[in-house]
Structure formats: C-alpha cells, structure tokens
Specification:
alpha+beta, about 20% strand, flat, two-stranded antiparallel ribbon
C-alpha cells in the first residue's frame, strides 16, 4: 500500500508545474507634469516608489543611487513637517501672556520656515527623481533594426538587414 501511494505521488507530482520564469523587457519611463510617471502606457499610482522595481531590474548603480537619494530627501521632508509640533510640545506650556505672544510669533515663524523648507525639499526631490528617470531611460538596452548598404570591392553595393543592440 505504501509503495502504491508513493508511486501515485511520484506520477502525479511529475505532472505538476513548478514556478515559471518569465522575462519582461524594460520599458522607458515617461514623466508628465505634476510629476506623474508612466511606465509604458500605464500610469504609476502613488508616489515615485513604484519606480523601484524597474530601477532594480535595470541594475544600474547610478540610477539606484539617485533613487535612494530621493527617498532620503522624502524622509527629510516628513521629518521637517514635525518641527512645529515639537516646538509646541516643548514651549506650549508657558503661562504668562507676554510669553504666550512670543511663543505664538515664534511658532508662526517656524510654521512658515517649515513650509518653505518642505517646498524646497520637494523641488529638490523631484529634480533628483527626474535625473534618475532620464538616466534610466538612457541606460535601457535599445534594439536598432535597419537597412544597410555595404560597399563592395568591385565598386557595387550589397544591401543587407541589420539588428544592433545597445547595452
């Protein structure tokens, strides 16, 4: 009985398919105003983090470095947003009127500075991502197919078709 079950599992298991390996060709990334990113015809949802997979697939160190820098700048943006809250927690418990007025004035200055700093970091981050996408598109392997006329030693020409890959 044990041998029959073992034989059944071996025969049935041979027909089972394992994971398949599929190869996908990398597509260029387009940048629309906003910035919004399109990978082929599909719009990437959310922030630029959806570009991580094509960047990893390309395997280019410079593109990956620019992407990581953009992620670090985004983290800095998020940390800067907490500065007004930290200021309120530290200085919000003052009791005197004149002190409260000073805290309010400083707080408004900190909020304005935080807004400007966040806006500046956002502009820098979008520029870094734009450079990453442009570098990615330049480093994509491109196939060129064309007609070639090769001069012969007899004075004539020989037509031919050619395919060239750029790596």
């Amino acid at each position: 009985m044990k041998h029959a079950l073992l034989l059944l599992f071996l025969l049935a298991g041979g027909a089972a398919l394992a994971q398949e390996t599929r190869t996908y060709s990398l597509k260029p990334i387009e940048i629309a105003p906003g910035p919004r990113y399109f990978y082929g015809p599909q719009r990437l949802s959310g922030d630029f983090t959806a570009l991580e997979i094509p960047f990893l697939e390309l395997g280019d160190g410079e593109v990956w470095r620019l992407y990581r820098n953009a992620k670090r700048i985004r983290t800095a943006e998020r940390l800067v947003a907490f500065v007004p809250l930290a200021y309120l927690v530290i200085n919000g418990s003052r009791r005197s009127f004149s002190s409260r007025q000073a805290v309010r004035n400083y707080y408004l200055g900190i909020v304005g500075g935080t807004f400007v700093a966040g806006l500046g970091l956002n502009i820098v981050r979008n520029g870094v991502m734009r450079r990453a996408v442009v570098t990615y598109n330049q480093r994509l392997p491109k196939a060129a197919f064309g007609l070639m006329l090769e001069p012969l030693s007899t004075g004539g020409t020989a037509p031919g078709l050619g395919l060239a890959m750029k790596f």
